[in-house]
Design brief:
This protein is mostly helical and 177 residues long. 55% of the residues lie in helices and 6% in strands. The chain has 5 helices and 2 strands, in the order H-H-H-H-H-E-E. It has a two-stranded antiparallel ribbon. A hairpin with an 8-residue loop joins strand 1 and strand 2 (160-164).
């Protein structure tokens, strides 16, 4: 008996599938970046207005003062807690994660969420934060014998899971603001 259906089943080209998946991935990342940029632009407007107001206030005290001659300083330490705050937060987050542990990337995302720091949502800034703050913090805790790290199965060069050392004597850390 002959099939009267003239429609034959065709296979979608694998290159087209890959392109469609890549398109969807880039589209999702673009949406994330646009949202982060919107938040950063809002933050920039608020900070610029605050800076202008502070400049006007300083000039009222001293008319000859040029506020633009004042060099900027890094307010990172005060904004993100004082000395030891990141270590205390890392220990607290690892304690809560338990045996599952946390990656450096997840630790950076949690820290950004805790602080409400939208700048750390943008990938290049988060990468810089991970390399300059989170990784060194975890390495110091490892030297102190408080945490351990293991390479994640199937992960890349930098894919590590950090965990609290069983039996490590930890004091109750203060929570960042």
């Amino acid at each position: 008996m002959e099939n009267s259906s003239s429609a034959t089943r065709t296979r979608t080209n694998s290159a087209l599938k890959w392109l469609a998946n890549e398109y969807a991935s880039v589209q999702g990342e673009l949406e994330l970046v646009r949202n982060a940029l919107t938040m950063l632009q809002e933050r920039e407007r608020r900070l610029a207005a605050e800076l202008e107001g502070l400049g006007i206030s300083m000039q009222r005290f001293d008319g000859e003062l040029d506020p633009t001659a004042i060099r900027s300083v890094s307010a990172w330490r005060e904004r993100n807690g004082g000395r030891g705050t990141l270590q205390a937060y890392a220990l607290d987050a690892l304690r809560q994660a338990g045996a599952a542990g946390l990656s450096v990337d997840m630790m950076a995302k949690l820290w950004a969420a805790e602080l409400g720091d939208t700048a750390l949502l943008v990938s290049p800034l988060r990468e810089q934060f991970k390399e300059n703050r989170v990784s060194p913090c975890l390495k110091r805790l490892k030297v102190k014998g408080l945490v351990t790290c293991e390479r994640m199965p199937g992960g890349g060069n930098k894919a590590y899971v950090w965990r609290i050392v069983p039996g490590a004597k930890l004091r109750k850390p203060p929570r960042p603001r």
